[in-house]
Amino acid sequence: MALGTLFFGSYEHSLDAKGRLILPARLRGPFATGGYLTPHTERCLGLFPADAFGEEIAMRRAQAAGDAAARNEVRDWSAAVFEAEIDKQGRMAVPAHLRAYAGLETEVLVVGMIDRVELWSPSAWAAKHATTERGAS
Questions:
Q1: What is the mean pLDDT of residues 9-37?
Q2: Across 32-48, average pLDDT
Q3: pTM of the prediction?
Q4: Alpha carbon distance 31, 16 (integer Å)
Q5: Which of 46, 51, 50 is nearest to 110 (CA)?
Q6: Is 39 left (phi over 0), alpha (psi -120 to 50) or beta?
Q7: For residue range 69-128, what is the model confidence (pLDDT) as tens digits?
Q8: Distance CA 114, CA 103 (A)
Q9: Which positions ≥6 away from 56 have C-beta within 8 Å?
Q10: C-beta of residue 22 within 8 angstroms of C-beta of residue 13
């Protein structure tokens, strides 16, 4: 099995006053020509390189074929997608509508999630883990 680009690890970063995030150096390579920042599951943001984004698009197309409600969900998702550019300092703008969706204020947890990078509010990340731990008890 050939492996494409893979993302692992977690990193604590901050948004600057202009709503930009410095992407960790270890994760930047696949985004040299940009990426796609999207609303993702569990109120985080997904940052996809172009090759993985193609797979996400295919999954969304299949979802939209289901029914009108599914198509509306895909429309809303598609309207919120942001084509991200990474500047020479490794900074990426995170638009206000996506910061609001994920509850990103100042601190951001950047998490490698195999085929994408996820951006989490530290409080949402902690709450998700607290719920998971309670469910395992």
A1: 96
A2: 95
A3: 0.90
A4: 20
A5: 46
A6: beta
A7: 999 999 999 999 999 999 999 999 999 999 999 999 999 999 999 999 999 999 999 998
A8: 23
A9: 36, 38, 46, 48, 116
A10: yes
Closest CA to 107 of 97, 121, 119, 95: 121
Mean pLDDT of 28-54: 94
Residue 41 in this model has a pLDDT that exceeds 80: yes
Q: Which CATH number fits domain 10-136: 3.40.1550.20, 3.40.190.10, 3.30.565.10, 2.30.130.30?
A: 3.40.1550.20
Q: Using CB atoms within 10 A of its CB, is residue 4 exposed (0-12), middle (13-18) or buried (19+)?
A: exposed
Domain ranges for the chain, please list them: 10-136
**C-alpha span between 19 and 34 (Å, rounded):** 17
| C-alpha dist (Å) from residue 133 to 9, 111, 130 | 20, 19, 5
For residue 62 the two structure tokens come to: 């299949």
Which pLDDT band, with edges at 50, 70 and 90, does 1 fall under?
A: very low
